[in-house]
Amino acid sequence: MSTFRFKEDFVWGVATSSYQIEGAAHEDGRGASIWDAFCRVPGKVVNGESGDVACDHYHRFEQDLDLMADLGVNAYRFSIAWPRVQPDGSGAFNEKGLAFYDRLVDGLLARGIQPFATLYHWDLPLALQEAQNGWENRDTAYRFADYARKIGGALGDRVASIATHNEPWCTAWLGNATGYFAPGNADLKKAAHVAHHLLLSHGLAVQALRADGVKTPLGIVLNQSPAHGATNAPEDLAAASLEYAKFVRWYMDPIFKGEYPAEALHWYGENGPQDVVREGDFEIIGAPLDFLGINYYTRIFASASGEKRPPGEHGFTDMDWEIYPEGLTELLTRLNADYTLPPIYITENGCATKDALEHGRVHDAQRIRFYDLHLAALAQAAQRGVDVAGYFAWSLLDNFEWASGYDKRFGMVHVDYATQQRTLKDSAHWYRDVIAEHAGAMASR
Ligand code: IFM
């Protein structure tokens, strides 16, 4: 018996993204993405791996939809590969690519599963990067809005929601400040420019979809964490406040308050976004939203004093991320106090664990505990007045974990990459029971 309860129409989902699962990188007219190119740069991805084949979901999606139906989820969050539907990121669209998402959405609806679409989960058409430096260029925001309109027209009548971006912090920061992700730039000013253009593209897309009469709920997905100082010393607390401003408020404040946080702007100094911010941008970025998606994995630990992160009550995942469920309650209650927000979905939450497939079973007890603790923390936030609409476990399948390649497994379904055999892990059985129990409890009310 689980200890948490959610409202009657709570959305129980699983999430994935295009480049991480689809494969079929060179089929049916798909263009190249920045990740196709990045994976070929020696040393960027563990074992030189790529999403060329991944989970071969492009060919096996019917089987994967059956898995979801078997789990009893009522929603599936997926992303659309921009280069699959518009190979160059501008100009002609690719009918075969669009047809794939058509089949996917229809397959979900046929199984009673609500499709939650994300327009951008990091796979920018390579042509836009090569021709105009991708998100560094303001024009890419306008190309994104055109692409959004196309998807709105093609799928808007059938999907349950459209999120513009997934985790723009990762695109901006990991892709451009540290070079850890595609396109691999290590330049703070570029990162600030990219972040601004991502936010702008979000607002432009929302405006364009609304202008086209798309009625689907629209939102954005942000990765967020509370930030804690190593000690209560003023320098540690100041470090935590700055990290929170750079990670959370850098995206939330423009969208919900119409400005960048002064604290982080000060830190960026001459490397900030000022050269690319134009009059009227914040009105576009602040276009009203129907939902906010939050991806939660861990907390930020900030130490100016050199104090190390303590081992923690729940330990660490295979990504070496601290398991800190109470941070989810803390984050959501703080957001609820700081902003006027639309309903919130937890659009990702999960953990990589060292899984072993033995005799057809994967005993991923750590993952079950992780989900259990975080769902309880989420229910706490709901009790404290946060409007929590749903939860998407990351991820349905083991998949291509970006710079970590296939080494890290986040799925509740195990994938044997040599055979593409799917096996439900213990956590998948557990999640099915939780969903069923919840549905049963609701029915007997
Ligand atoms: O796999 C990623 C996903 O693409 C974005 N959010 C975090 C996950 C785990 O690292």
From TrEMBL:
The keyword DNA-binding does not apply. InterPro entries: GH, GH_1_N_CS, Glyco_hydro_1, Glyco_hydro_1_beta-glucosidase. Keywords: Carbohydrate metabolism, Cellulose degradation, Glycosidase, Hydrolase, Polysaccharide degradation. Its EC number is 3.2.1.21. It catalyses: Hydrolysis of terminal, non-reducing beta-D-glucosyl residues with release of beta-D-glucose. Pfam families: Glyco_hydro_1. It comes from the Bacteria. Belongs to the glycosyl hydrolase 1 family. This is Beta-glucosidase. It comes from Paraburkholderia unamae.
